[in-house]
Amino acid sequence: MYQKEFKEQFDKLTASVSEQFNSVPLDTLNELAKDFGQENSANIVIFDPNTAKTIFEYSYWGDIATEDLIQSSVLGFYNTETDIGYGFYAETSLSSVNKVTTGLRATLPFLFFISLLISLIVSAVYAYSLTRPLVKISEMSHKMKNLDLSTPHEIHRTDEIGVLAYNLNDMSERLVDTLGALQKANDKLEEDIERERALEKRRKDLFTAISHELKTPLTILKGELGGMIDKVGVYQNRDEYLAHAYETTESMEQLVKDILLTTRIDDDDVQLNFQDDNISALVSKICQSYEMLADEKGISLTYYCEENIVAPIDEIQLQHAIRNLVSNAIFHSPKGAMVDIQLANIGDKRKLTIENSGVHITEEEIENIFEPFYRTEKSRNRYTGGSGLGLFIVKRVLELHNFDYTMENSEHGVLFTVIF
């Protein structure tokens, strides 16, 4: 290949000389020959073809070994006008090429291993850069399979791998939102189920208690009426036991009214009719209505209501609650006790307090006293202990109004407080 290229360059030189030979002086030809020798690392000679005398010579090489020698063909040119001719001859050595070739052959194994090592390193780096996002995507999909959607992966690429990672992250976010919505719906459903179960249990317990409460007076009433019909023993005095049967009927009527009221306000969906109303007038009216009963029982009833205390209330239901509180205070106080009722603005609060002296209740009773049909009077006598629904009605009415309330033992007796 080197020999072929050398001869092609010599042919270009001679072709250029042939075109200019008849018009170019010898000095110019010498310059062309010199340039050829320098560019092609060659020895070149211009000689007289007739005498073989050297006219110009450029030597790049000294002695050239036979095995390294590359010779060009000998070309001659003749000018018919001047009767002058020249011959061109060039040669070069393969020694430098052979040295390079020998050096390459010696270093080729090292170059091969270095190239192989570089190729392996580049391949490893490329494979790592290519497979790393794929490994992350695989980890992401494995976590998604286990519904672990907490840590999205950030892969900043714009190729197909980046698009895949973006789609997985987007799907993960959508799954998080969907699962969150499902969890909320499930929690709400569980709350509804638990509330329905509690309501059903409360209704069941209420109906059980109602049947128990009605059974006793019905049995008494049936026995008394049967005895009067058959004129047995003491029941021959019909006037006395008719009056007693009438009282039993009245107590049953009041119990039924309390049960109906309890059933109505115990419904979670009950709607009260709220209107701004004068609580001061309402409490004063209720207290006045119980003055005679307090006198009959020997109870000192005192009350003070600050004027024009107004709040949004359902008057009918709140009246039931306050009446139950006042009547409980009177009925459960011993003769000579005091029932004190206060309604006033205290700071930024509107507070109603009802305190009856001479009695205390245990902590256990305070915890259970608002349950339906619970009575602190252990004999469960309706005439001394009531129906057991009064404070339950109070609790539900105050809760429906969102009023805070407390019941506690005070220094003098029992104190019930309502914050409007």
Keywords:
single chain, 420 residues, alpha+beta, Beta-Lactamase, Heat Shock Protein 90, five-stranded antiparallel sheet, five-stranded mixed sheet, 11 helices, 57% helix
How would you describe this structure to a colleague?
It contains 11 helices and 12 strands. α4 runs antiparallel to α5. The chain is 57% helix and 18% strand. The chain is rod-shaped, with a radius of gyration of 60 Å. It has 420 residues and is an alpha+beta fold. The strands form 3 sheets. Strands 1, 2, 3, 4 and 5 form a 5-stranded antiparallel sheet that branches. Strands 7-9-10-12-11 form a 5-stranded mixed sheet. It has a two-stranded antiparallel ribbon with strand order 6-8.
Outline:
rod-shaped
The largest β sheet comes out as:
5 strands, antiparallel
Helix fraction bin: 55-70%
Rounded Rg: 60 Å
Q: Spans with pLDDT under 50 lasting ≥5 residues?
A: 378-385
CATH architecture descriptor text of the domain at 271-419: 2-Layer Sandwich
CATH superfamily annotation of the domain at 271-419: Histidine kinase-like ATPase, C-terminal domain
Figure out the total of helices.
11
The topology string of helices and strands comes to HHEEEEEHHHEHHEEHEEHHHEE
Question: What is the CATH C-level name of the domain at 271-419?
Answer: Alpha Beta
Structural class by sheet pairing and helices: alpha+beta
